[in-house]
Amino acid sequence: AHAFETLLLERHDAVALVRLNRPKALNALSLELTTELSQALDALERHPDIAVVVLTGSEKAFAAGADIKSIKDCGFMDVYDSDLISSTWERLTTCRKPSIAAVAGYALGGGCEIAMMCDFILAADTARFGQPEITIGTLPGAGGTQRLTRYVGKSKAMEMVLTGRMIDAVEAERIGLVSRVIPAAELEAEALATAKKIASFSRPIVMMAKEAVHRAYETTLAEGVRFERRLFHASFATQDQKEGMAAFAEKRPPQFKNR
Ligand code: CAA
Q1: Which of 24, 26, 112, 114 to mutate to test the pocket of ligand 1 (most atoms within 8 A of CB)?
Q2: Is any ligand 1 atom within 6 A of the Cβ of residue 69?
Q3: 20 to 30 A from 177, CA-CA: which of 1, 110, 199, 239?
Q4: What is the pLDDT along the chain (259 residues), one digit of tens a residue?
Q5: Is the ipTM of this complex over 0.95?
Q6: Pocket of ligand 1, candidates 21, 27, 68: which has the most ligand atoms within 8 Å of its Cβ, to mutate?
Q7: Residues of 118-143 as b/e, b for ≥16 C-beta within 10 angstroms?
Q8: Which fold has domain 7-199?
Q9: Ramachandran category for residue 105: left, alpha or beta (phi over 0 → left; psi -120 to 50 → alpha)
Q10: Is the CB of 152 within 6 Å of ligand 1?
Q11: Domain map of the chain by residue range?
């Protein structure tokens, strides 16, 4: 296993728990942290026994955003040349294995954006989401104006981006930013249980299902439905579809082989 400075990795059977770990800076997303996150995802993606990734932070903060202190003196060429967001942060968006963000405390700016790059967000009742960039003289730079708008619609996204107002977990669930709110003390166990549930299914089929849902954001309805139909047909070429449906007919649990 790899040793990271800003992440803690735990393995729970087929689930990898990746914990952002810069407690003194509320997990602000330094270059080191986002680089390590993308390296960790490379390794987890390759790892044959890992099926699902859970990304979490601390009780106080999932992540309080980009590391303001390390970028405050950057010029245009510094940020343009390095293009850090596409080269490191966005590794989450190319991960074929499912990813779940388990958010407690602050998920602000880049923290909210990283959570939105995961496949879905489970929130502790202590979670706070916001895009406060406007309050420090900039705007979201890792998808906050785009992904948030798709999650919650124009009115909410516009208000959050233009005012920097933070929303709590209840509002986040009501507007569809998070899939569920969980008591803080149970967040990690519930996220792991959810991940293990997904990991119990056929991995290639899970990847197809994830790919199909993502396609909804990239194409027209007609094209998306056609894409889905092709994958649905393709699932009938897998052993796991045979096993899953045979098990149903025989009233027994399926034994998926990831084939
Ligand atoms: N970058 C760097 N350091 C940060 C940080 C950040 N985003 N957020 C918090 N910290 C540091 C604080 O500076 C502080 O360090 P010191 O103890 O050395 O002073 C430490 O973490 C604890 O923070 P606070 O004392 O501020 O804790 P608090 O409980 O009083 O407040 C908070 C918590 C409301 C989250 C507050 O820290 C805050 O507003 N943070 C900044 C949030 C923000 O503006 N994020 C957007 C960043 S820009 C961005 O993300 C761009 C993008 O889209 C790519």
Answers
A1: 26
A2: yes
A3: 199
A4: 568 999 999 999 999 999 999 999 999 999 999 999 999 999 999 999 999 999 999 999 999 999 999 999 999 999 998 888 888 999 999 999 999 999 999 999 999 999 999 999 999 999 999 999 999 999 999 999 999 999 999 999 999 999 999 999 999 999 999 999 999 999 999 999 999 999 999 999 999 999 999 999 999 999 999 999 999 999 999 999 999 999 999 999 999 999 9
A5: yes
A6: 68
A7: bbbbbbbbbbbbbbbbeeeeeebbbb
A8: 2-enoyl-CoA Hydratase; Chain A, domain 1 (3.90.226)
A9: left
A10: no
A11: 7-199, 203-249
